[in-house]
Amino acid sequence: MNDYGEGLPENKEEAAKWYSLAAEQGNTWAINNLGKMYENGEGVETNKEEALRLYKIAAEKGFDLAQYNLGRLYYNGEGIKEERKTEAARLYKLSADQGYDGAQYYLGVMHEHGDGVEKNLALAAKYYSEAAEQGNAQAQYNLGRLYDNGTGVGLDKEKAFYLYTLAVEQGHALAQNNLGNMYESGEVGGTVNNEEAFKLYLLSAEQGNEVAQFNLGRLYYNGEGVEEDKEEAAKWYKMASDSNYSLAHFDLGVMYENGEGIEQDKVEAARLYRLAADKGEVLALYNLGRMYENGDGVEEDKEEAVRLYIRASDSGEARAQYNLGRMYANGEGVEQNKAEAMRLYKLAASQQYAWAQNNLGNLYELGDGIPENKEEAVKLYRASAEQGNAVACYNLGRVYFYGIGVEVNKKESERLYKLAVEQEFALAEFYLALMYGSGDGVPRNEREALRLYKLAALHGYEPAIQTLDRLYCHFGVAVLDEQECAKTYELYTSSVADHAWAIHRLGEMYENGVHVEKNTREALECYRKAAARSYGPAQNSIGLMYELGIEVEEDKEEACVWYERGYQNGSVFAAYNLGRMHLLGEGVEQDYEMAEVFLVSAAERDEVRAQCMLAQMYDRGLGVEHDTEKARFWYKEAADRGYGCDV
Questions:
Q1: Which residue of 74, 331, 527, 565 shows the fewest CB atoms closer than 10 Å?
Q2: What percent of the chain is modeled with pLDDT above 70?
Q3: What is the CB-side half-sphere exposure of residue 481 using CA atoms within 13 A?
Q4: CB-based contact 428:393 (threshold 8 Å)
């Protein structure tokens, strides 16, 4: 009574004294209990060797509990120099044969896993069954698991359900989780019961079971069996993740990446994906690869993205196969290899992955690295389009329009372009606008064409912006208000695309007061934004403002710096201006040779002012050798473009 505090105040030291006295008289219960106290350091100093000695004495007297305890020490290698699992199994069997459920359970575990004994699932089930019949919750759970999976026994979901229920009644956490699985999947009775699953997952999760914590988070996330609550989902996922459960690492990573139920943190998302990836979670490998490819939450590293995609691809993840194929096709993070790209696209396409079907169609259509096959391209575009892929809808519409691999069918082209337009795909918006504007295969509808041009422009398609610029700002389409020109660019420049061409064009409109109130300060701000994106024409425009002192102090040297930047980024106007400044010696030292180089560069790209200036240099021998033929050539080039040079 002193040991358990029954009838007397608990006193472990006093209990050990009385057990010792009884043990000296050969009482097996006392010998065993004294061994337990030495094993756990209760009432006496911990001494595994003494515990082992006492268990041996009681076990040799045939005491089943001592045989079990001695077997446990042998199994765990406690109190002995090395593990002796064969001896542990022998002792467990002695105890089990006397009906001790703990020994029966552990003997079942050893036979299930072949741990110290030969693996024998049927024998494991036998021992679990014997212990389960005595109410051993662990054995009830393990036997239920065998029936649940059909391992060592015939698959029997009803028996599994019954055994899990018995263990659940004793508060067994793993059984609570597995019984919750059965209610959620409707494996017994064919009826899904998410509410009961939720209750069981909660019971298990509150006992610290990480799998149940993950399952509970999943139900909260999806609103199944409980009202949807992303914050509560994140809380339970985090508990499971903190217990190093890989699926929870992944799902919590998704929530951090998207800012669902928790503050968005892509760095933390990447960390969690890495934890899950290190455990071989395929989706985590894919997501982490995507983040490395795009520099999202981690420093961009295309080579690391390739390595991660390869691991996920080898496990059959279609999106990884597609992304890896795309990187091989473009030579990103890996040496370009169109044949390997095709192989990977085929793997993903065989899993009906729409993007892979579309890209494989591109390769077949163009004969890019593989034999050209227009008909196969059409089949792949169709398969992808039938899954709603906007790019494939556009491509299929395009091949019907031009009769590539199929007969021309412009009504079908219109239908497919419309499907892509519904998903805001800019190329489809632009080409459908062309069809409506010209009446090619469809009734002409200029109003609809303009609407589609605007959509394509707002979605960042430069030819659509240029078309609107031409229509609004040069021809003044009557069906729309003239302010639409400026509005189009204002909307476009505030969009995600932030396109440098449109920003620069808006600056020109502000500078010249075209359809907006003239505002040179706003013009300069637009030019600076576009120039920061290395847009040469904008850099040239800033040079002009420095040269003329518009909104900045006149500074011809600074003007030349900006002209040089514009020239390096391909601006023909900057080439002309640099040539002019070198010719006149303004902002730079006069240099006729360099002037000729820059002016030729501009003139060859049809810059008529450069053509005239070159013609005059050759005609007058201005800094160059007099050359009548060259002078005549450049005068004619300018004249053919309607520009008269002052001779």
A1: 331
A2: 89
A3: 6
A4: yes
Mean pLDDT of the chain: 88
Most confident of 7-21, 31-45, 515-529, 532-546: 532-546
Q: Residue 482: its pLDDT value, please?
A: 52
Q: For residues 647 and 645, what is the distance between their CA atoms, to the nearest angstrom? A: 6
Tokens of 523: 């013009």
Three-state secondary-structure class, residue 127: helix
Q: What is the DSSP letter of 296?
A: S
Q: What is the 3-state secondary structure (H, E, C) of 510-563?
A: HHHCCCCCCCHHHHHHHHHHHHCCCCHHHHHHHHHHHHHCCCCCCCHHHHHHHH
pLDDT computed for residue 478 by the predictor: 38
To which H or E segment does residue 496 belong?
Answer: none
Mean pLDDT of the 364-382 span? 92
160, 148 in Cβ contact below 8 A?
A: yes
Average pLDDT over every residue of 242-270: 95
What is the C-alpha separation between 381 and 405, in angstroms, rounded? Answer: 11
Report the amino acid identity of residue 385.
A
Burial class (CB in 10 A: 0-12, 13-18, 19+), 434: middle
Residues in CB range of 423: below 8 A, 6 or more apart: 388, 390, 393
CB 26 within 8 A of CB 62: no
Q: What is the pLDDT of residues 505-533, one digit of tens each?
A: 888 888 988 767 899 999 999 899 999 99
DSSP state letter for 388: T
Q: How far apart are CA 541 and CA 503, in angstroms?
A: 12
Q: What is the 3-state secondary structure of 417-476?
A: HHHHHCCCCHHHHHHHHHHHHHCCCCCCCHHHHHHHHHHHHHCCCHHHHHHHHHHHHHHC
The C-alpha atoms of residue 4 and residue 22 are separated, in whole angstroms, by 17
Region of 385 please: left (phi>0), alpha (psi -120 to 50) or beta: alpha
Query: What single-letter amino acid sits at 17?
Result: K
Closest CA to 388 of 365, 414, 422: 422
For residues 372 and 365, the answer to whether their CB atoms sit within 8 Å is yes
Q: Compute CA distances 77 → 15, 57, 322, whole Å.
A: 27, 18, 51
Helix (H), strand (E) at residue 206: none
User: How far is the C-alpha of 502 from the C-alpha of 605, rounded, in Å?
Assistant: 22
